Amino acid sequence: MILPNERELSEIVHLDIAGYMEPADEVGGDYYDVLYNNGMVKIGIGDVTGHGLESGVLMLMVQTAVRTLIANDESDPIQFLNTLNRVIYDNVQRMKSDKNLTFSLIDYYNGFLSICGQHEEMIVVRSQRQPEAESHAIIERIDTMDLGFPIGLEADITDFIGSINIKLNSGDGVVLYTDGITEAENHQGEFYSLEKLCEIVKQNWHLTASEIRKAVINDVRSHIGKHKVYDDITLVVLKQK
Known about the structure:
The protein has helices at 6-10, 53-71, 77-95, 179-182, 194-204, 209-224, and strands spanning 15-22, 30-37, 40-48, 101-109, 112-116, 122-127, 137-142, 163-167, 173-177, 233-240. It is an alpha+beta fold.
């Protein structure tokens, strides 16, 4: 109900964005959002431990807290993440819950991305336009382990938060995901893997964001086959126009 819709995403003029989320249960614990405010695009992605109602409730708390911080024009990423963490930490303590979540926040403005927070590796895709190139894209993987700390585990995470900046040229982009994709199992118990995700993204990068999303999800479904889906599946694709 609260995921960004196609109309919202189409209004972001400099980016081609497509998102997808499929919960393993009726209520999902994955989080992603794309919010536009005063020329700045904020993209968040997170994964609450477990899935189901309790994880879904925590995800809704995160979404509301993020929107509140944006509405109050909080622009400092360290303060943003630390305030978000404190709100979630206090609620988790009240709930007597052991839930927490990985969370990355991406700020986009005028061709530059600022990334902070700890989540899965981020896939940065560089477009190749040379006719002789073997592929339409070059993949860079960014480890976010040193950019943050799980949200809701400690009261203060200020000292753990870092950030990096990336310049996007025309045709470049980023792919965000949760481990519901990379750890999706087939009937033999084999993971889909980050390497396979990168390969499918690379092969289809010349397409639109929604077409890339479709290619990835179709390939993940093909891998899973009739095997049970154990975790929420989330994917966000964005390309610089």
